[in-house]
TrEMBL record:
InterPro entries in the cross-refs: ARM-type_fold (IPR016024), Sda1 (IPR027312), SDA1_C (IPR048292), SDA1_MD (IPR007949), SDA1_N (IPR012977)
SUPFAM superfamilies given in the database record: ARM repeat
Domain named SDA1 N-terminal: residues: 62-98, 145-274
GO biological process: protein transport; ribosomal large subunit biogenesis; ribosomal large subunit export from nucleus
Protein name stated in the entry: Protein SDA1
Annotated compartments: Nucleus, Nucleolus
Segments forming domain SDA1 C-terminal: 488-534
Name of the gene encoding the protein in the UniProt record: SDAD1
Biased composition (Acidic residues): 335-361
Similarity-based family: Belongs to the SDA1 family.
Highest rank taxon of the organism: Eukaryota
Keyword annotations from UniProtKB, A to Z: Membrane, Nucleus, Protein transport, Ribosome biogenesis, Transmembrane, Transmembrane helix, Transport
Length: 537
């Protein structure tokens, strides 16, 4: 019976609220019934304001939600609530009271202006307006319609260049994060892809952000060719070529099918470029395609096969690679089997040394964790692919994985990129993997486009400023001036030093300087050294 009573309209306020919002004229009688009930509860509340009333709170919330549906009946509802709070705020129940004594200050216009100014100043000082919250873009009702409206506004906009840049940034984030189809955005961006364009690195960043695997490869190919033809040419400087290769790498990382074999081979030739920045950028592009699609590279650029390169498979456009298991989860099952095997064995084993080792020489001992990781890796390599998939599916469906488990899986997947393929010699005996390496996120950073592997040379002004900043005040080591009167004239000896050589070339001192004998030069050197020694004292 209780469930039946809860489904009745007069007592089930949430259901009645939903129905009233859909069709207000059809439920006027039910609303009036609840409105009269609300008035009677208000009268009871005025008699005992300190008594908690859950029913009154529910009715107030109900009236506030449907106030716009019946404005003729609830026109005085806000003022009634305000009066109740103003007159009874000292004795109101804490759960029922919404605002304290400061509620009456809201009617003061000066106070409202002051509060607004303080809020704006606080936001400006804390720089909240510079923070990016990607979750805000997920609250938009219709992503495609919003992006199309922004693009239409951008194409016909006559605002400043900074405003256009902000619109391009927002559109690229929407397209990249939500994988939208906005084909007209890419030709619009290509118009600005010139080395002399202002803020061109940011525009390249927007082009990379707007790329994803659902865009047809033909559209992204034109974008790649524009970047390659305008940036990656020998007539440009090394920094411009580096920025272009970095942009191509980030675009193809999100849409691998857009890269053609001819363009990739041309870019791979820059691996031996004389500029170190261009050379390193080309190597990072080659390393990317070693894991994405090694078959597109020439044989000399593919490197030694690894587990990741052997398992790599090129997906066609629109193909979905959905798995019913977590790739790499089989390592958890193998580690568990290793632990069980160790527990079954005895904890201690007798250590015996041969007579050949009893000569006092040092013995190389490797860390046990390295040996365990090597054994686990060998077991996984010898395991068939179907068995590995079965173990990974069993682990994924039989237990709840913790953060430590996901960390182990991620390290195992990273190890596949370094371990040699089955049947090949290992690249390294011991491999160190940085577990803190940052993974590629949804949003790009400008550092990914502007990354220079070699520090650029400083100009003359920068070097002089650095030298002057490094100098300290060393007055105690500076030779003191011997002039007694600072306002006196200079001596004849000082004047001779400042005279032009053409005026002094026929003087006796100059003509006789080259005619001194070895003995005279020896005596002059002795006198100079003695004079210098006296000064040092």
């Amino acid at each position: 019976m209780s469930n039946r009573n809860n489904n009745k309209l007069p007592s089930n306020l949430p259901q009645l609220q939903n129905l009233i919002k859909r069709d207000p004229p059809a439920y006027v009688e039910e609303f009036l019934q609840q409105y009269n009930h609300y008035k009677s509860n208000v009268e009871i509340f005025k008699l005992q304001p300190n008594k908690p009333s859950k029913e009154l709170a529910e009715l107030v919330l109900f009236m506030a939600q449907i106030g716009h549906c019946y404005p003729e009946h609830l026109s005085n509802f806000p003022q009634e609530l305000k009066d109740l709070l103003s007159y009874n705020h000292t004795v109101l129940d804490p759960d029922l009271r919404m605002v304290g004594p400061v509620f009456g200050l809201i009617t003061c216009a000066v106070f409202i202006v002051c509060v607004c100014v303080v809020c704006v100043c606080t936001i400006f000082k804390r720089e909240h307006y510079t923070d990016l919250d990607p979750q805000c873009t997920s609250l938009i009702f219709s992503f495609p319609d919003f992006a199309e409206k922004l693009l239409k506004q951008l194409e016909s906009s006559k605002e400043r260049f900074e405003v256009k840049m902000m619109l391009m940034n927002l559109i690229s984030r929407l397209v990249g994060i939500h994988e939208l189809f906005l084909f007209n955005f890419y030709p619009f961006v290509q118009r600005f892809l010139q080395p002399h364009q202002r803020e061109v690195t940011k525009i390249l960043l927007f082009a990379a952000q707007a790329s994803h695997h659902l865009v047809p490869p033909e559209i992204i190919q034109s974008l790649l060719m524009t970047v390659a033809n305008n940036f990656v040419t020998d007539k440009n400087s090394g920094e411009v070529m580096t920025v272009g290769i970095n942009a191509i790498k980030e675009i193809t990382a999100r849409c691998p099918l857009a890269m053609t074999e001819e363009l990739l081979q041309d870019l791979a030739q820059y691996k031996t470029h004389k500029d170190k920045n261009v050379m390193m950028s080309a190597r990072t592009l080659i390393q990317l395609f070693r894991s994405l699609n090694p078959q597109m590279l020439q044989k000399k650029f593919r490197g030694k096969p690894t587990e990741a390169s052997v398992e790599a498979r090129v997906q066609k456009y629109g193909e979905l690679d959905a798995k019913d298991y977590i790739p790499g989860a089989e390592i958890l099952e193998v580690e568990k089997e290793e632990e069980n095997a160790e527990n079954d064995e005895d904890g201690w084993e007798s250590a015996s040394l041969d007579e050949e080792d009893d000569d006092g020489e040092w013995v190389d001992v490797h860390h046990s964790s390295d040996e365990e990781q090597q054994e686990i890796s060998n077991r996984l390599n010898s395991m068939p692919v179907e068995e590995r998939k079965a173990k990974a599916a069993a682990v994924s469906t039989s237990r709840v994985l913790t953060q430590e488990d996901f960390q182990k899986i991620r390290l195992a997947q990273m190890r596949k990129e370094l371990d040699a393929a089955p049947g090949k010699a290992p690249k390294r005996k011991y491999i160190e993997i940085d577990s803190d390496e940052e993974s590629r996120g949804e949003l790009l950073s400008l550092r990914d486009i502007e990354r220079l592997h070699k520090k650029p040379k400083s100009d003359k002004e920068t070097r002089l400023a650095t030298a002057m900043a490094g100098k300290t005040d060393r007055k105690e080591f500076v030779r003191k001036k011997t002039k007694m009167n600072p306002f006196s004239s200079s001596t004849n000896k000082e004047k001779k030093k400042q005279k032009n050589f053409m005026m002094m070339r026929y003087s006796h001192n100059v003509r006789s300087k080259n005619k001194r004998s070895f003995r005279e030069k020896q005596l002059a050197l002795r006198d100079a050294l003695l004079k210098k020694r006296k000064r040092m004292k």
